[in-house]
Amino acid sequence: MGRLIVIEGLDGAGKRTLAGKLTAALAEHGATVGARAFPRYGQSVTADLVHDGLHGRLGGLSQSVYGMGILYALDRQGALTDLRSDLATHDVLLLDRYVASNAAYGAARLRQDASGEFVDWVRAIEIERFGLPAPHAQLLLRVSATLAAERAAHREHTDARARDKWESDTALQVRVGAVYDGLAAASWLSPWHVLDGAATPDLSALAATLLG
User: Fold this and answer.
1) Using alpha carbons only, what angle is made at residue 137 by residues 134 and 143, rounded to the nearest 5 degrees?
2) What keywords tag this UniProt record (predicted)?
């Protein structure tokens, strides 16, 4: 059974870039690597509903933290068979966002911290009720909300993809970052590795650690 490694962080932290580079570093250590990203936009009806909610097209549902949380959770539950298959056929399955994203963003919207009720609810729904596999390790790509916003704005310009309401809310992003810090400090669901998103990490050493 392969190891489930998750990359977490603010919108614009550079998770997609890190995923590509870490995949190469893991392969250099002889590991076979599968990769997925959540939400599964364009692949899952539930994920596409998430997208609509983030852009204000689901009426009052998008204002419900628990309603959006269920949509995120259902998107992952719908991928459970694929996740199990990937873990059975690869040494590492690398995910761009997973359960902790739901916990961090929902808690931040409710102005709760990492020890709050919403974080416990996400764990109960996604891990215990839906049976999603717990990560082997989680990587927090830590950047300031200001830097994340600058990167997201640049991506919006270069990719012609409009930022959603959460990406554009700097105050929310600050609170999300604080919840992520709390989750990492508490080793929520697994050990966490905190990486400086404004620096260049030693990915070869990180890959060795993750495989060790």
Assistant:
1) 120
2) ATP-binding, Kinase, Nucleotide-binding, Transferase
pTM of the complete model: 0.91
How many Å apart are CA 56 and CA 165, to the nearest integer? Answer: 8
CB burial string 184-193: b at 16+ within 10 A, e below:
beeebbeebe
Domain range enclosing 44: 3-211
Q: Please give the angle made by the CA atoms of 185, 178 and 114, to the nearest 5 degrees.
A: 55
Average pLDDT by stretches of 10, the chain with 212 residues: 96 92 97 97 96 92 96 98 98 98 98 98 98 98 82 58 71 96 98 92 95 92
What is the domain count for the chain?
A: 1
In this structure, what CATH number is given to the domain that contains residue 188?
3.40.50.300
Separation of alpha carbons 60 and 127, rounded Å: 27
Tokens standing for residue 7: 């990359």
Tell me the residue type at 207: A
